[in-house]
Amino acid sequence: MVEIKEKDFESFFRTPFEVYPKDFPFVSQLKSDLKRFLSMENPLFRTEKDFSYFTAFKDGKLAGRILTHIHHASNEKYNWNRSYYGFFDCIDDVEVARALLEKAEAFGKSHGCNEVIGNFNMTAMQMIGVVKKIHKNYHYTDQVFAPVYISNLLEKCGYQETFPMVTHEVNVEAFNPETLLGPKQKEIMNNPAYTFEKLKGDNLDHVMEAMRQCLNHGFSENPMFVPLTKEEIYFQAKDMMMIIDKETSVIANYEGKPVGVLICIPNLNPFLKGIKSKFGITTPWHFLLHKLRRESATIIFYSVYKEFQSRGLNGVMLYDIMSALKRRGYKRFGGTWISLDNHASLRQADKLNAEVMHELCLYRKSLV
User: Fold this and answer.
1) Is residue 149 part of a domain?
2) What region holds the N-acetyltransferase domain (predicted)?
3) For residue 150, which of 361, 304, 365 has the smallest C-alpha distance?
C-alpha cells in the first residue's frame, strides 16, 4: 500500500538518503537551501498555490518524493500551458512512481495545464533532466543525478522523452590552456577596450548584476530560457561569495560594460557528502578540509552577449579559468547540462577535451 504525504519537508529531504543504495553516489542539496527553495521565499512562486511537494511511503517505509510547480514566466513567454515536476526520486517500484506522478498530474490539471514535464529543480537555469545513461558514476554541484531506473519508471508511467542533454567533465591536469588561444583570442587580449576582473568580497551586487545581464542577453534565444529578475539571481546565488574561489571566475568588460561572465566554483559535493547535507557540529571542520583540498570545480554560469559571441571571447575566458584552475591545484571540473542542439557549446566542450559524464533528457506527458 502506498501512502502519500503533502508538504512534509523532513521526509522530503530524507528521501534520497533512504531510497537509494548506500553505495550510490547521490549528493543532496544543503537542507537549508532546499527548504528556502520550497517556500514563498523563492521569487519563482507568486502564491502558495504555485507549488506543492509530496513524499510516498510504502508499507510504512519512505519510498519516494516529487515536487510539482507552475513557472508562470515560462508559460507566459512561450505561450505554453505546462506544469513542472522535479526532485523525482524513488525506489525502483512502478506503483510508488505512479502514485507520485499522479499527484503531479493532478496538480497540473487543477491549474488548467495541458502537459507536465520534468525534472526541473526548479527552472531551466538550474538543475534539470533525468539521467538516461551514466558514463561516470558520480556528479558535481548543480548536476542532476539519479539511478537510470528512474527514466525507466517514467516510461512505464506513460512519459515520453524529449530535449536530450549531456554533462561533461574536463581533466584540468592534462589540459594545456594555451591551445585555447588563436588569433581572435590574442587580438582580444591585446585590445585595451577589453578588461577582465575577478570576483571580490566587496563587489557582490556588481557581480550579481553583471551575471544577470550577461545571462539574460547571451541566453535570450536559447530554448526554455526565461530572463532572470534581480530577485531571482540574488536568491539563487547570494551565498556564492562564501564558497567561491575568487581566482576561478571572471567578468569580461568591453569599454567598461560587462559583456561576458564565467563563474566556476569549487565542487561542493564532497563537503555536502561529509556533512550529509545539513549543518552540524562537524561542519566547520569539513568546510576547512574542503577548502584545503580543492580537487574539483564546477562551472555554474557561463554566458557572453550575443554580439560578442563567435569573436573569441569564450576562449579568452576559458583560458583565464583553466589557467587559474591549474595554478590553484584543481584536477578536474564538471559542467552543467548542454542540449544536444547547442552545437556551439558542444564544440567548446570538444576543445577542452571534455568527456561525457551523463546522458539526460526531459520527460513529458500530455494531460488532455
Assistant:
1) yes
2) 238-347
3) 361
Q: What's the angle, vertex CA 85, arms to CA 80 and CA 87, rounded to 5?
A: 150
pLDDT band at 359 (very low <50, low <70, confident <90, very high): very high
CATH of the domain at 54: 3.40.630.30
pLDDT on residue 245 = 85
Backbone conformation region of residue 60, classed left if phi is above 0, alpha if psi is from -120 to 50, else beta = left
Cβ of 283: how many Cβ atoms within 10 Å? 13
Start-to-end C-alpha separation, the chain? 28
200: domain range?
Answer: 173-330
- β-pairing, 332-335 vs 338-339, is unpaired
| Residue 292 pLDDT grade (very low, low, confident, very high; cuts 50, 70, 90) | low
Check residue 39 and give its pLDDT. 96
CA 251 – CA 238 distance, rounded (Å): 17
Helices vs strands, H then E, count in the chain: 13, 16
**Res 241: pLDDT:** 65
Q: How many residues does the chain have?
A: 368
Q: CA–CA separation, 321 vs 307, rounded Å?
A: 22
Q: What is the SS3 assignment for 81?
A: coil
Q: How many domains does the chain have?
A: 2
359 with 132: CB under 8 angstroms?
yes
In this structure, the number of other CB atoms found within 10 A of the CB of residue 114 comes to 13
Give 156-166 pLDDT, tens digit per residue. 999 999 999 99
338 found inside a domain:
no
Strand partners, 252: 196, 260
User: pLDDT tens digits for 217-260?
Assistant: 988 888 899 999 999 988 887 776 677 888 899 999 999 999 99
CA contacts within 13 A on the Cβ side of 68? 26
